[in-house]
Amino acid sequence: MSAPPADDELHLRVDDDPAALPREAWNALLAASAQPTPFMRLEYLQALHGSGSAVAQTGWQPQFLSLWRGRQQENAELLAACPAYLKAHSYGEYVFDWAWADAYRRHGLDYYPKLLVAVPFTPVPGSRLLARDAASRRLLMQGLQTLAERLDLSSAHLLFGDAADFAVAQAQGWMQREGVQFHWRNREPQPYADFTDFLASLQREKRKKIQQEQRRVREAGIVYEVLQGAQITAADWDFFHRCYQLTYRAHHSTPYLRREFFAAMQSEMAEYWLLFVAQRMVDGVAQRVAASLIALDPHTRRAYGRYWGALEPIPCLHFDACYYQPLSWCITQGYRAFEGGAQGEHKMARGLLPVGTGSSHWLAHPDFSQAVNDFLAREGQAMRDYTDELSEHQPFKQGA
């Protein structure tokens, strides 16, 4: 695909394997972005592909788009790039467009494949259109729509981007969609001293509920082993993956991530991971029963709840392993925020507050585009009303 003729030094490239892209140059663009996250590092995206987790056979065909200056490969300069996929379904996205796909089907039209700019299975807000400057981001955005049009796709979508991503998408006429997640933020300007200090800031009934849940976990004999970075061995990853698989199967679902992906995380991105292993003492022997995996960004001091699993059901263990233990760790380590993942207003009672998220959408069919635009206007107002209502139910004491 060629860049606009006004500047024949620039050209756009599409790669069906992220391994074809230069890791150092990609990550440099990410580091300079407004909202970097570990999940946009090229190592992470390459591991998703290399492990067979996000490949054409699983409905994620890579079409990574990049903008370059110069055509000599050894001298070419990477100006902009984004992870893009041809999607054969809408699983693993966390921005739900099943109703749109069904409407296409009922009218005898194909909704899939569609073009998706996102990090597979990872609903973490952050920069998606990595670019040296605004002009490069604009050309990359134009390239995405051109790619969708040349492939005669129904639509193109950009999920969980940052403000600069959404601004350039909106300038190109893409529709905007609003969402909400629940994130914990450390207190400012005086951070919490410890988890007890955090609990003291909550309303009495919220604090008592958490204390009761933690007491039930302790009464079950649970203690935690906390492993970070290189401390997480292959055997630890094996145990976590076993728990992860069992929990998906218990919910009659198939796990997205293969063991090979976590092997790549151990070898390529170990410093970005924190593992809480729940153990129970039986006849004086510690038996592992569950694990919670947290992603870390040491640079921005943010933590991300990612995956969990258990060998057996233990009351309240999920909340303790996935929220209370990570929050306590974040406070101790001086982290600024903890993102609890997609959905779940029950997280508010645990000190995670609503945060707006967004996505951008382009539909080729003009009638469907207008119908979706009307729907998004109504949905957006409903989402704002919902967020306002949530804000009236703060879990914190006044002045805390």
From TrEMBL:
InterPro entries: Acyl_CoA_acyltransferase, FemAB-like. It comes from the Bacteria. This is N-acetyltransferase. The lineage of its organism: Bacteria, Pseudomonadati, Pseudomonadota, Betaproteobacteria, Burkholderiales.
